[in-house]
Amino acid sequence: MLIYIALLIVPFLFGLYAQIRVSSAYKKNAQIPSRGHITGREAAAAVLGSAGIHDVEIVEVPGHLTDHYDPSNKRLALSSENYRGSSLAALGVSAHEAGHAIQHKVGYSMMTLRQTLVPATQIAAGASNFLILAGILLISTAIGGKMLMIGALALAIICLFQLVTLPVEFDASRRAKGQLVDLGILGREEMDGVNETLDAAALTYVAVFVASLGSLLHILLILTGSRRDD
Questions:
Q1: Using one digit for the tens of pLDDT, what is the confidence trace for 43-68?
Q2: Which of 125, 145, 170, 177 has its CA 20 to 30 A from that of 99?
Q3: What angle do CA 74, 78, 79 make, to 5 degrees?
Q4: Looking at 97, 169, 190, 196, which residue is catalytic?
Q5: What is the pLDDT of residues 10-25, one digit of tens each?
Q6: What is the domain extent for residue 83?
Q7: H or E element: which one contains 207?
């Protein structure tokens, strides 16, 4: 029983800690203006330009930390606070997203694998909750066991996707940090704020993976227990 509880509680607490940390780090460094007063949009454009990327559209989108790069449409979306802002947090996040565009251009293998997994992950995400819930309710029947097994497979796909996401995010941050200094957008003494922001953001991806893995192990334990009962 304790291991079942641990697989649910530990990922939840870790995820809560990650969210608090990223919120705190972003809020803190969003209050620190960069010395050059360059905006997030300008920083992203500079990073893209230095990599010879001129066909990616940089757009402003609503919401808080809704920043993302869409490789299908070659579209770099920045939330208003980062698109227009000139804080250390805004520049760090904007350069990070530009790092994804660079990954796309150079054919970074883990990003390619991640994109390949997207369709299967979307299907798995849509079906996993129903399959698992129905499987648990019908665990004493043959069809319930099969549904739970399929649900576990769907969770394994999601877990793999989250695992592959980790090096993609870490690499994008590495590229962003290097470019911000190399291009003279930020001084080395300003990088502490960028590092704190991006490292906290990376922790949220680790938390998501841990949560997915915990859910998968939980379901596998249920399956193992049901087989023993049989």
A1: 999 999 999 999 999 999 999 999 99
A2: 125
A3: 150
A4: 97
A5: 889 999 999 999 999 9
A6: 2-229
A7: helix 191-229
